[in-house]
Amino acid sequence: TLGTQTDYRDGEAQTDPYSPEYVIPRGSVPELLTLATLTWGRGLPAGLAEVEMIERAREKRAWEATLPAMDSASQIAKRRKMMEDMERKEWAFREQEIEKLQELRLEVLKKLLQRRVENQNKLDARRLDDHWENHQKAKEEKFKKIQHDFVLMLRKLIAKRKNVMGKLERRDIIREYTDFASQTYAPLSRVGYFPDNLSECYVVKNFYLDTFAGLCELEASLPDSVTQLKIKTPKPKNTTTETGYIKRSARLEVVLAQVHQ
To answer: Residue limits of the CFAP91 domain (predicted)?
Structure first.
């Protein structure tokens, strides 16, 4: 009999809507009790299927009210015939519901199969891409090997063509030293020469730079002008011209000095 108003939303205060208790007067069968089996999340809030079920229940109650009384054999036969007709209608309706459920399940299965086919196609495309990439890498490696073999064989052919007749050639020292690309100036590593192994021969080793006594002797041999600095005072700039006028730069320096003060 009392109601309250809170500052909270229904979603914050409770999970399911509240259903109050009820009392049925004698001799009355309210229609609302036919929906007592419906709960929140299972039929409530009511949708199109629940509305059809309610209409069908109303029609059935109206049909039950039209059934004849069982006071004679003719009325009993009529009542049985009406009940058989109603039972056929209910079976037909149930078959329709089963067909609808089967169609829904079939649609779900179709969607699942389509999704599985799409995932399989994506997986196959990814595998094909990986396979193609591996083939491309193998192809590039093969091309590199062919190019390397081609250069190697070309060098061998050039070396053979230099001495086609198979004659012995004497060493031409003048030609070797005049050609800066010869083996004398730029030996090749494939011939067996590795310049990094003899890098120490280019290191400068000097007595005056590596020892303390050498540094002292080098310092003593230097002239005084190197160790002792002599600063000459600069001559004052000539602020006047030959005709006796003051230069513009001198006037600016005077103005800047006044501004600074």
So the answer is: 4-156
**Tens digits of residue pLDDT in 15-70:** 677 777 888 888 877 877 777 777 777 777 778 888 888 888 888 888 888 888 87
- The residues pairing with 43 across neighbouring beta strands, listed in sequence order, are 39
Residue 164 DSSP label: S
Q: Count how many residues are written for the chain.
A: 261
DSSP-based three-state secondary structure for 22: coil
3-state secondary structure of 242: coil
> Measured at the alpha carbon of residue 251, what is the angle toward residues 248 and 255, in degrees to the nearest 5?
140
Spatial distance between the Cα atoms of 42 and 105, rounded to a whole number of angstroms: 20
Contact 18, 24 (CB under 8 A): no
User: Which runs of consecutive H residues, i.e. helices, occur in 25-72?
Assistant: 48-65
The kind and range of the H/E element at 151 are helix 73-162
Task: State both tokens at 152.
Answer: 């190697």
| DSSP letter (8 states) at residue 258 | H
Do strands 39-40 and 43-44 pair parallel, antiparallel, or not at all (unpaired)? Answer: parallel
H or E stretch including 43?
A: strand 43-44
For residue 83, the tally of other CB atoms under 10 A from its CB is 13
Radius of gyration for the chain, computed over Cα atoms and rounded to the nearest angstrom: 56
